[in-house]
Structures are given as structure tokens and as C-alpha cells.
Design a protein that fits this description.
419 residues; alpha/beta; Glycerol-3-phosphate (1)-acyltransferase; Rossmann fold; 2 domains; 7-stranded mixed β-sheet; 14 helices; 16 strands; elongated
Length: 419
């Protein structure tokens, strides 16, 4: 009797490592062969004069860049043009990471790879990317890293990830912080407009080399590098992040905002209603929060409205509509305060309600950069938050759809006017 055939092994699910195998050729080329010298210098010979003439490119602080040996360039990321503009800082090839989606088209992937790009899996700890970057640095070349992980525009800089710290520790290469500004205003659709672009370079930072960097150590190095990038950004006139805040109001909403902003690391000044408080003057605050009931909003603005700086952001977290016309609180404040942006926060009145009920607060502002920064601030404090550029969207609470809230809002407004 013939022996039974061996059972076929059950198929195993694809592993995450298998996903990166598709881009093995791009990583191998960056490690072993480097850029295509003919294509690289030909493209640069065309692009660099174009940048100087059309964008009036200004490069400040190039004397801080080491002339030879491995170098890590850490920069903010505002536009797809950033890698090409930053590459003009040095007279040798500069390698950089790019999202792996750009390599799905064979011709485009070959072109970018020939210019020094190699893929990275954003949102995960990509060991393949780190290995490629270390191999490039080991042979004495330069690597450019965008610690934010994606393009951040508009507004202030985003939150960095710890990959640059890990690479600096495990390679031992110096880190050159720099900032670029103006590239986000160049493109409108497919049209490339003339706009002033400036780059500023800071002094190189060095760190002791370790065999394997722990997440905590990599984060500590990133926290040392990123303020130097922010320093260059602010010197160029970029939007300064919010550092000083004041909370005006009383009740659960004011208490929740005070606790969240303190957790987020802001220099906080809490004021209740019309009372004054010791601390930084209101005119020096980057963020002013109005929290409480709609009936108290008039007294808050009467006491503190004129002291709010025109460069400040006002965050409104008020319950109800403002009598007698049923005006939205954010519209009521925008009409009476001269501020840079008036934003609103919608959702549960207390931070614990969001955590227990699963509702996610929404921060909304007409300036999407401000809305993003405020939402990141709340997330940094431990409260999940979303952001939107539609002010009415911030009034959506929990799972309520915007259309349902709009109908409810109109009914409340009509009722108050009839009364």
C-alpha cells in the first residue's frame, strides 16, 4: 500500500518584512552603487540655476557643514521640493529617505533612486531604512532626514519622530540641523510660482556612538536635535509654536483645559471670569482659552478682550449659544476680539467624559495649521483629538453627524429668537 502523500503546509500570512522585500533592489542600489553620477549631476546642473533665479534661493550658514565625512542633515519638511533645494547646500551627492509609495511606479522609482532616494515605511520602525542609511554614512556620504515623517504645512513645525536620534547614535555621524521656508508657497496645483526660498543651517551636533540605541535614548537625542531645527525655523520667520497660554473661565470646561495644557507643557496662566491673576501678562500669551457657559462670555471679553494680543490664538470652549440672537460662541468672539485666529473646541465638557464615552473632541479653525497644532497639543496631553478647517465641525459631539447637529442648532436658534 503506497505511503500517504505529505500534507501541504498551511499558507502563512505575509509578514511585514515581506512587504519591504519589494524594495530590496532600491535599498541595495543605495547601499552598494549610490547615485547615478551622470543623471545626478545633469539634473543638478539644470535645477540649481533655476532655484537661484526663479526662487531667489538664499543659503545661510553653509560654513557650519563639515566638508568631508559622513553627515546627517535634519530638516523640516514643507514641500516635495525640499530634497532638491536642500541638496544644493553641498557639492557632493546627498541621499534622502522618501515614502515607499513613490517607488511603486518603476520609472519614477528608478529616477528617484538614481538621485539618492531610498524608501521608508512611514509610521513604523523601518529597520531596512536604518540599515541603508548606516551603510551610506559608513562609506562617508551624507543622508538627509525629515524627522517629522511627512510634509507639515501650514503653521508651526510638527512633532519629530525618534528615527534621527537612533541613526545619529548608531552611526556616530554629526547631525546638522537646518530649516527651509518658502517651498510650501511655490506650487499651486501643477503651477510652479516664483517665490523666495531660504535655508538656514545651524552648527553640527555630535553624540557618542552606541551599538544599539534604546527608544528612550533615541528620543532624548531627537529632543536635543529638534529645538536646533526650530531655532533655524524661527530665525527665518516661521510660525512660532504656542508656548504660553491663559485659560479664562470657570467650571469643568476651564478645569479640563487647564489640566490638559499643563500636561502639554505650556507655561500656563489660569484666570477665573473677570478676576485678574498673577503670572505672564495676557498680551504675552500665544494662546488664550475662553471656557465656560455662553452666559459668561460677555463678561470674559469685557474684562480681558482688549488685553489679548493680535498675534495670539483664541480657543473657544463654551457651552450653548450666546443670547439674545443665539450666536455661535466662536462667531461672537471673532466679532469682538482682534486675534490672529479664533478656533473652537467641541466635544465633552470634561476630559474624562471623552475617555469614558469614547467621544473624540474636534478642534476647528479657519487656519488648518493652527487647528493641527492645537489638536497635536491635546494629543500630547493624552487626549485623543481631531482637527478640521470647518468651524461648525468642532461642534459635533461624539458620534453625532454634522447634518443632525446643524438641524438641532437651527431649531435651538429659532426657539431662542421666538422666545
Amino acid at each position: 500500500m503506497p505511503a500517504p502523500a505529505p500534507a501541504c503546509p498551511a499558507p502563512t500570512p505575509a509578514s511585514p518584512a515581506g512587504a519591504s522585500a519589494t524594495y530590496e533592489a532600491e535599498h541595495r542600489r543605495a547601499r552598494e552603487r549610490g547615485v547615478n553620477p551622470i543623471l545626478y549631476w545633469l539634473v543638478r546642473a539644470v535645477f540649481q540655476p533655476f532655484f537661484h533665479l526663479y526662487f531667489r534661493l538664499s543659503r545661510i550658514g553653509r560654513e557650519h557643514i563639515p566638508t568631508d565625512g559622513p553627515v546627517i542633515f535634519a530638516s523640516n519638511h514643507r514641500s516635495f521640493l525640499d530634497p532638491f533645494v536642500i541638496a544644493t547646500l553641498i557639492r557632493r551627492p546627498m541621499y534622502y529617505v522618501a515614502k515607499r509609495e513613490l517607488f511603486r511606479h518603476r520609472l519614477q522609482g528608478w529616477f528617484l533612486n538614481s538621485l539618492g532616494a531610498f524608501p521608508v515605511d512611514r509610521g513604523s520602525s523601518d529597520a531596512e531604512m536604518i540599515a541603508t542609511a548606516k551603510a551610506i554614512l559608513a562609506r562617508g556620504d551624507c543622508v538627509r532626514i525629515f524627522p517629522e515623517g511627512t510634509r507639515i504645512r501650514p503653521g508651526a513645525l510638527g512633532t519629530p519622530r525618534r528615527g534621527v536620534g537612533r541613526l545619529a547614535l548608531e552611526s556616530g555621524a554629526p547631525v546638522v540641523p537646518l530649516a527651509v521656508i518658502g517651498t510650501e508657497d511655490v506650487r499651486r496645483g501643477w503651477r510652479i510660482r516664483p517665490h523666495k526660498v531660504r535655508i538656514r543651517v545651524g552648527r553640527a551636533l555630535t553624540f557618542p556612538r552606541v551599538q544599539r540605541a534604546s527608544p528612550a535614548l533615541a528620543q532624548a537625542v531627537t529632543d536635543r536635535v529638534w529645538p536646533c531645527v526650530m531655532l533655524q525655523w524661527e530665525w527665518l520667520g516661521g510660525v512660532v509654536p504656542m508656548r504660553r497660554a491663559a485659560v479664562i473661565g470657570s467650571g469643568a470646561r476651564a478645569a479640563a483645559l487647564t489640566e490638559l495644557l499643563a500636561r502639554a507643557g505650556l507655561d500656563l496662566d489660569a484666570r477665573s471670569g473677570a478676576a485678574t491673576a498673577t503670572g505672564p501678562p495676557l498680551a504675552d500669551c500665544d494662546l488664550v482659552c475662553l471656557a465656560g457657559a455662553a452666559a459668561e462670555l460677555g463678561s470674559m471679553l469685557a474684562a480681558h478682550g482688549e488685553a489679548i494680543s493680535p498675534h495670539a490664538t483664541v480657543l473657544v470652549h463654551v457651552d450653548g449659544l450666546v443670547a439674545p440672537l443665539g450666536t455661535l460662541p466662536v462667531a461672537y468672539v471673532a466679532e469682538r476680539v482682534c486675534a490672529r485666529v479664533v478656533a473652537c473646541l467641541g466635544g465633552p465638557g470634561h476630559a474624562g467624559d471623552a475617555l469614558r464615552g469614547g467621544a473624540v473632541p474636534v478642534v476647528a479653525a479657519t487656519d488648518p495649521g493652527v487647528a493641527r497644532e492645537l489638536a497635536e497639543m491635546l494629543r500630547r496631553a493624552g487626549l485623543p483629538a481631531e482637527h478640521s478647517s470647518a468651524t461648525l465641525a468642532a461642534l459635533v459631539e461624539g458620534c453625532v453627524e454634522p447634518e443632525q447637529w446643524t438641524r438641532q442648532l437651527l431649531r435651538q436658534t429659532a426657539g431662542q429668537r421666538a422666545a
